[in-house]
Amino acid sequence: MKSKYDLPVKTCATCGLPFRWRKKWARCWAEVKYCSERCRRQ
């Protein structure tokens, strides 16, 4: 089992905060640029 801290990290293009990989992004992790829907809309 992987630790939460072993997961890949990216920086949000809008707010600049780091966010970690989520299971729902497993198929499209390369295209993910924003940490949340709120940041994506701004």
UniProtKB/TrEMBL annotation:
Alphabetized Pfam families for the sequence: DUF2256 (PF10013)
InterPro entries membership: UCP037205 (IPR017136)
Protein name as annotated: DUF2256 domain-containing protein
Organism classification: Bacteria, Pseudomonadati, Pseudomonadota, Gammaproteobacteria, Pseudomonadales
